[in-house]
Amino acid sequence: MAESKKILANYVPVYVMLPLGIISTENVLLDKESLKQQLLKLKTAGIDGVMSDVWWGIVESKGPKQYDWSAYRSLVELIKECGMKMQAIMSFHQCGGNVGDEVTIPIPQWVLDIGEENPDIFYTDREGNRNKEYLTLGVDHLPLFHGRTAVQVYGDYMKSFKETMADLIGEVIIDIEVGLGAAGELRYPSYPQSLGWVFPGIGEFQCYDKYLKAAFKEAATKAGHPEWELPDNAGTYNDTPDSTEFFASNGTYLTDKGKFFLTWYSNNLITRGDDILDEANKAFLGCKVKLAAKVSGMHWWYNSPSHAAELTAGYYNLYDRDGYRPIARMLSRHDAILNFTCLEMRDSEQDAAAKSAPQELVQQVLSGAWREHIEVAGENALSRYDSYAYNQILLNARPNGITNKGVPKMHGFTYLRSSDDLFEDTNFELFKIFVKKMHADQLLFFSFCFCRSIVQTQQSMVKN
């Protein structure tokens, strides 16, 4: 009955992302008592639970299938002790080298050792720079990892997690977000700070390892164009669209060759998400959890005709082509949640030169997901503690109505992240107000805002 009331009231659950380094690279839960106090403090704000990465580089660090879940088991039990729920991220990426990364957690050393002998297991740009934060999707189905493919490695990891946490899944762990790329997002690592990228650079395509080069050549040959090669005119990380031949007005992206490449590049990404989520469904079959996948908020150059930053990340999105709805369609096959970022951003806060449009991007992605009848969830992209950001999140996270499945359109919102700044007195008071508004009955909430506006207007008239 309580759950049905939440649905009728359009109650939006609020979670808080825990700090990145609560479990050390030595697989130790750090300062457990301090973390407990942090969780209890968060609970006073009325949040529904917390989210935490579960790092592949920590758990399977000793060797293939040598899993050590002890620290994470302690973490989940502590969350349970504090009376909270948990969203667990299967984090198959490196921590470090992306916006907001405060610690460094590499992928497992035994995988890096394979990369020393065969660096083509990593995403590679046109200049040959290797990115070791995630394995290229070119090796998803190649048995290069002590007889296992990359997809099998991810699947085995999730099965082991399920077996170890079986008594806590459904009771404490309610969502499993499956890492599908850089920063845990379904994308190519097109804008790595570790390789010198600076906002609002367009980024670079990441398909020049030998496996993806061969796959493209095979696809082009089958299409009757064996002469087609991967792009060599798409610029570098910090270029603008108009400074390149590929993304400029009437550029390569509009030609048959460009369209073929972008279709191939983006379809590979969707296929890899589909394949790994298949493994997740097998691993968590019968468990009372929801699967989720995160899509990146590439809002810069959204108002440029070529949408260059989105294209290099693998989102083939143009004015006349929706690059996100196919992702939502893939997620619908797995009954998975689409988790999207940058819900706090306003167009007016962005640098005009970057041609950003986060508000329009959020609406496009969420609307496309709802049309595919899947649930959506959201996050803020950057740490914010002000009412302007919270009000923008409220606008995005509290849509009218419910889906045809009778569940809230917004599955939940995860605030990024718990920190000393969040717990500062004024910041925390604002955060508590935000949580209450996310939980409030929508009709009553907006009625209250309307009435308050009338009262304020009347007071102003009296004063004058």
Automatic annotation (TrEMBL):
It catalyses: Hydrolysis of (1->4)-alpha-D-glucosidic linkages in polysaccharides so as to remove successive maltose units from the non-reducing ends of the chains. Belongs to the glycosyl hydrolase 14 family. Keywords: Carbohydrate metabolism, Glycosidase, Hydrolase, Polysaccharide degradation. The active site is at E185 (proton donor), E379 (proton acceptor). GO terms for molecular function: beta-amylase activity. It comes from Gossypium barbadense (Sea Island cotton). Substrate binds at D53, H93, D101, K294, H299, T341, N380, A381, R417. PROSITE patterns: BETA_AMYLASE_1, BETA_AMYLASE_2. It comes from the Eukaryota. Its EC number is 3.2.1.2. This is Beta-amylase. The keyword Hydrolase applies. It is an enzyme of class 3 (hydrolase). One of its GO terms (biological process) is polysaccharide catabolic process. Pfam families: Glyco_hydro_14 (PF01373).
